[in-house]
Amino acid sequence: MSEAAETVEALDIPQVYRHHVFCCFTQRPPQHPRGSCGANGAAPLWERLGRRIEARRDPQITMTSSGCLSFCQAGPIMVVYPQGIWYTPKTVEDIDEIFDSHLVGNRPVERLIIVPRV
Question: From CA 31, how far away is CA 29, in angstroms rounded?
Answer without folding.
Answer: 6
